[in-house]
Amino acid sequence: MNSDIKTLQLQHFEKVHPLRKEIATLSVHDFFEKTGTQKHYRNRFYSLFIFTKGAGSVAIDDTELKIVNNILLFINYNQIYRLHDIAYEEGFVLMFTKTFYNHIYTGNKLIKSDTALNDVVPLIKMKSEFQKDIFKSFNSIKKEYLKNTLYTREILCLQLKELMLRYIRASKSNSEIKASTHRKKDFVDQFCELVNQNFKENKTTASYAKILNLSPNYLNALVRENLGMNAGQFIKNRVILEAERLLLHTSMSVTEISYELGFVDNSHFGKYFKSANGVSPNSYRTSKTI
Asked: Largest alpha-carbon pair distance within the chain?
């Protein structure tokens, strides 16, 4: 399956604009001309589709959604999707990276970073008044993008936050698939918390899947969908982070650290650490303290 998934980068769509690696906008017709509609894709960016006229369906991970007139479709980072039999007479797509969305720090915990986009539903049907607001926001972004002058990046970032706040507000009242989306996110949040509490004792996906009453494969799929890595890699990252902390900020020996982290012997810990960092624990400690 993985060999059939094409990973898209923003530079696939825009070759000239100075911000082409951070944000881009084009018609849905041009988007599908460049990508096709019968392949599986994974985006290394966020994408917001505005369909004013359309038909067909989109499968996002394990959820199938119908494409109809006057909808917004949001594809999150690292989600795998496929569009089926799409008719795309009218519409636009706005694509942007996490780095670009986070370019301006607002100080407001609701919108200060891309974490605000984690829980939004992927599809919203646009009512007339909401549609007017969306088009007003989108057209402002498009105009500023084409202008590309002093403070364009900053203005675009603020305009983008406004547009996504409108989407988030609308998503809060959209119940069509909200429950399913939140349930999946809840599992991932529980998994992350369990790993933080138990990474010294439990280092396998299966052990956490059992606690959550899920299959290991399904837990892997949920974690990959939300975090861009499988569950095993997330667990290993947490163990390695703790190992690095102990190596850099304590006088514990490598052997003591290996037992502290739940390894049965120093050799196993050394191989585990080197597979992540490319160097032994002792070499890592030496290189960082010179």
From this structure: 66
Given a contact cutoff of 8 angstroms between Cβ atoms, the answer to whether 77 and 229 are in contact is no
Tokens 């370019």, located at residue: 103
- Integer Cα distance of 7 and 277 in angstroms: 26
The answer to whether residues 92 and 28 touch, using CB atoms and an 8 Å cutoff, is: yes
Task: Return the axis-axis angle of helices 231-249 and 205-212, rounded to nearest 10°.
Answer: 120
**Would you give per-residue pLDDT tens digits along the chain (290 residues)?**
444 678 888 888 888 889 988 999 988 888 888 887 667 888 889 999 998 888 888 888 667 888 888 999 999 887 778 877 777 668 899 999 988 998 887 777 667 667 778 767 889 988 888 888 899 999 999 999 998 899 999 999 999 999 998 888 887 765 444 455 567 778 898 999 999 999 999 999 999 999 998 889 989 989 988 888 899 999 999 999 999 989 888 888 999 999 999 998 889 999 999 999 999 999 988 887 65
Residue type, 108: N
The C-alpha atoms of residue 273 and residue 21 are separated, in whole angstroms, by 34
Place of tokens 């990046």: 153
Give the whole-angstrom CA distance, residue 58 versus residue 223.
21
The torsion of the CA quartet 191, 194, 196, 197, rounded to 10 degrees, works out to 180
Task: Provide φ and ψ at 43, rounded to 5°.
Answer: -95, 140
DSSP characters over 49-78: EEEEEEEEEEEETTEEEEE-SSEEEEE-TT
Q: Answer yes or no: are the C-beta atoms of 242 and 236 closer than 8 Å.
A: no
Q: DSSP letter at 265?
A: S
Hey, CA dihedral for 222, 226, 229, 232, is it positive or negative? negative
